Amino acid sequence: MPPTTNSHGRSHSLLLLQRLLNLRDAASPLTLLLDNLEQPARPVISELMTRAKLAKTKIIFLSFSTLRKPREADVFIKATGKDLNAVSRELLSHYPAFQPAAIKDKTVQTVVFIDSLNSLSSAATQSLAVFLSSIITPVVSIVGVYHVDVPVILPKSFNEYEPHPFALLNHLATAILTLSNLQQEIERQKARNRSVVEPEWGLKEDREGVLIGLTEKSKPEDQGGVVINMELRRRSGRAVDEKFILMPCSAAAIKSGLGKLCLVTDHSMFKKPEAEQGEDGEEQPESTFNLGLTEKQRKDREGIVLPYFDAQTDIGAGEGGRILYEMGREDDFDDEEDEI
Description:
Layout: H1 3-22, E1 30-35, H2 42-54, E2 58-63, E3 75-78, H3 84-93, H4 100-105, E4 110-114, H5 117-123, H6 128-135, E5 140-147, H7 165-172, E6 175-181, H8 182-193, E7 226-233, E8 239-247, E9 260-263, H9 295-302, H10 335-339
Parallel strand pairs: 1-5, 1-6, 2-3, 2-4, 4-5
Antiparallel strand pairs: 6-7, 7-8, 8-9
């Protein structure tokens, strides 16, 4: 891929993620955040809320497991134990008034954060799609968090042939952000570089007792980093897959700016080695040893006289190309072969 094309693709991928995080142009009506015990979605949610505040977007926080109202939230609604119809009516009461100009400009005026889609899936297994469809409007986007390592309690009336709530959420979502810990991804990359088995943490360790995560201290520049695997589904039906790194602002500097975004390949640990170039700029085959020639080896190669070199000269009389062979002392001359 030419450098210009590569840089254009990288800039385009970063632009798509920034549009998604900034909630611009209605990039994703329903965004699904997949987190786990090793990497909670809290840094990404904080980044989304900070960007929404800068864009003067109203923030509604629908709580199933959060006890306190987040600092950036404008409205805090507790949904635990409530009827979904009542929750839906309360949500709609905080929505902005209908404005045709906003719909035409595709500007998001309100964003609803759902802190636990697992609890919602357990409470409304069979009406999950209906509930989400009823609270999404052209000017309201939904950001929901699904914990992949927390089971969903299905009711006894659940039909085994019905889609699982997680499969349904993956089908409805227009953007899926899978989160993982940066330091753990670095450790996995080190294992891949050594061609050994990749380490696992948390529930995937298959250990009984206390869950032990990553205990090694990361570098200061990697502290708190989140790897985001983005799957953005465009209106054309084409999906865009790319991996990014989000470095959230520290608590002391959160008022001064936003988090830093970059592609995974821009990190020093994940950069691909540049292909070795030959004398004519051609790529050399990958090998564990050097295939190039030194100056002395090149001169020695040019001075080698090939076997039967004299047969390559034109000696006239139609005898060019004949093979000149001198018998050695150990050769056995056969008259019959000579006649043939």
